[in-house]
Amino acid sequence: MPRDEKDESRWFKERLLPHEGMLRAWLKSRFSSGIDVDDVVQESYLKVMRAHSEKPVHAPKAFLFATARNLALNAVRHAKVRGENLEFVSDDVDYLDESEGVHETVARNQELEILTKAIQSLPDRCRQIFTLRKVYGMPQREIAKKLNISSSTVNAQISIGVNKCAEFVGRFCETGES
């Protein structure tokens, strides 16, 4: 179903435009010469908006950065074919790993963003305990000792955290909103 142009404009302003400065800085830091950052940013916006018009994009920032990265890499590849020697920094990000397609990378990034939002939605104490256990792998006894609470409280808070995160993800999958 076609989306309202006003809704599309609002989605762009709220979900993509706030990341432009960070995107430009990231592109400049990774692709030091030879790519036209303005062109990559504009083409990225266009591709993300086209994708969003076909179906909802649940992690627009991740999708925007993955799209820009791929467009910049294509520019570097084309320049190499023309005999130009463009430099880019490849010390982080898995963009040179071509074994995983862009769709898989974007999907993984969207899932990570949803999980992060789910964890952030937990009450403070529950989030703290859940993060120590599930993210940092700290044993329950150590968490109990560190926070001066009982192991059963730690166990209960982890259960609550898992259940609330599952509910959050379920709601998000049904509605596309948190």
TrEMBL record:
Domain RNA polymerase sigma factor 70 region 4 type: 113-161
InterPro entries: RNA_pol_sigma-70-like, RNA_pol_sigma-70_dom, RNA_pol_sigma70_r2, RNA_pol_sigma70_r4_t2, RNA_pol_sigma_r2, RNA_pol_sigma_r3/r4-like, WH-like_DNA-bd_sf
Domain of life: Bacteria
Ranges where the RNA polymerase sigma-70 region domain occurs: 19-80
Protein's name according to its UniProt entry: RNA polymerase sigma factor
Alphabetical list of Gene3D superfamilies matching this protein: 1.10.1740.10, Winged helix-like DNA-binding domain superfamily/Winged helix DNA-binding domain
Protein family according to the UniProt entry: Belongs to the sigma-70 factor family. ECF subfamily.
PANTHER family: RNA POLYMERASE ECF-TYPE SIGMA FACTO, RNA POLYMERASE SIGMA FACTOR FECI-RELATED
Alphabetized GO MF terms: DNA binding; sigma factor activity
GO BP annotations, alphabetical order: DNA-templated transcription initiation
Keywords: Sigma factor, Transcription, Transcription regulation
Pfam families listed in its UniProt record: Sigma70_r2 (PF04542), Sigma70_r4_2 (PF08281)
